[in-house]
C-alpha cells in the first residue's frame, strides 16, 4: 500500500532536484525585477504568471515529445549538452573580449529609439513596450 506513495515521493524529489539547478528561480528574481521596473505590481504578477505557464508547458512538451523532436532533426541526446556548452562559451567569449573600434562606433551611432524598435535586442535593451506586447499579445496573428 505504501509502495506507490514512496515511489511517487522518490520521483518527485528526483524531478525537483534535477529542475531546480536549471530553473534557478531565486537567482532570476533580481533580473525579473530589474527588467520590470516600469510595470505595476499587477502587471508584474500577470507577466510572472504567463512566464510560469509557458515554462511549464515547454517542460511538459520537452518531456513528452522532446526525444522525437531531436530524432526528427537528427540530433542525438548526448550532443545537446555539448551544444549548450558551445553557446555558453560563445556568449562568454563575446562578453569578455574587447569590442573593436568599428563595433564601438556602430554602437555609438545606434540610438535608444533604434534599440527599442529592434526585435532582437539583448536582455538589457528590453523595454516596457516589449513587456506590454507580452502582456497583451495579438491572437493568432490578428
Describe this structure in words.
By secondary structure, this protein is mostly helical. 74% of the residues lie in helices and 0% in strands. It is built from 7 helices and no strands.
The count of strands amounts to: 0
Poorly predicted parts:
115-127
Could you give the distance between the termini?
53 Å
Mean residue pLDDT: 76
Strand-residue proportion = under 5%
Please work out how many helical segments DSSP would assign: 7
How do the strands and helices of this protein lay out in sequence?
Elements (H helix, E strand, L loop, with lengths): L2 H21 L1 H11 L5 H32 L6 H18 L4 H9 L2 H6 L10 H8 L7
In short:
The termini are far apart. The chain has helices at residues 3-23, 25-35, 41-72, 79-96, 101-109, 112-117, 128-135.
Which descriptors apply to this entry?
142 residues, mainly alpha, extended
